[in-house]
């Protein structure tokens, strides 16, 4: 597979009177054509800011991308002019935002919100755009699409609004879709429908997908590769199989142990991740996870572990005790 997106040492900070918040602090990863990548972690770890940084949608002030590069099809998006990056948004890279009701314009019909993008980016006539919008709504499973085009967002349920957002993301046939918590506030049945729809469409159309989520069930079923984030950094990266069956970072292990599993005997209680996420404006020396870590050693309090390859493969982990973590997982499996 050819590489579509390459992010190298990306840093996005927020500057305020209270201090500098290092929301994204030097992350690197790539996405291949037609691949599904998951970015996983607790709230506040930098997942959404990473996605917004790709499209340069971080509000300035207070946020600013201060370092690194984001290369999409060999173009550095950070060096494009405002007009050039607007051409990329929607046309080459599309985004499905976390809450569709706040992302859709309540005073415009669904049809107008779909056709506007196609008229702007694809130079379609109104009739051509309407015909394409009807086709897209049908593709994402909305019945009677011609009538639905004339309705407003409040006429749609949460799941149907999310389908509309997916249709909007697909309307210009992008090469990459970023889905930021695409199943938030949806019931379990609708979540499964939306995720199956996205996976089916990306496979059928050859579109790459970045899913940002805290739901490890989504990761297991839909992702090819996984990046686990903590305190603005990627602390483990690998295939979904490696992350689930051979984790090498204590945080990844803690996330897995905090989720009920159907393939193991029922336990009396789940093991929560102890403690609280760190304040990103007051990160001290050493590993950011060490105050919550059961594997921490003296070295963890003074040195930040680099993201290193496990056994020379594509599995990466940033932990001085990675081998002990792996052994602990093996004993509990």
From TrEMBL:
Keyword Aminoacyl-tRNA synthetase listed? The answer is no
Q: Cellular location of this protein?
A: Cell inner membrane
- State the membrane topology: Peripheral membrane protein
Task: Could you list this entry's UniProt keywords, alphabetically sorted.
Answer: ATP-binding, Cell membrane, Membrane, Nucleotide-binding, Transport
Recorded GO molecular functions are:
ATP binding; ATP hydrolysis activity
GO annotations of cellular component type: plasma membrane
Xref: SMART domains: AAA
User: Mind telling me which InterPro entries this protein's record contains?
Assistant: AAA+_ATPase (IPR003593), ABC_Ni/Peptide_Import (IPR050388), ABC_transporter-like_ATP-bd (IPR003439), ABC_transporter-like_CS (IPR017871), Oligopep_ABC_C (IPR013563), P-loop_NTPase (IPR027417)
ABC transporter domain spans which residues?
5-256
> What are its GO biological-process terms?
peptide transport; transmembrane transport
Ranges in a coiled coil: none
This protein's major location comes to membrane
Q: PANTHER family recorded for this chain? A: DIPEPTIDE TRANSPORT ATP-BINDING PROTEIN DPPD, OLIGOPEPTIDE TRANSPORT ATP-BINDING PROTEIN APPD
Q: Which family does it belong to?
A: Belongs to the ABC transporter superfamily.
**What is its biological role?**
Involved in beta-(1-->2)glucan export. Transmembrane domains (TMD) form a pore in the inner membrane and the ATP-binding domain (NBD) is responsible for energy generation.
**Protein name per its UniProtKB record:** Peptide ABC transporter ATP-binding protein
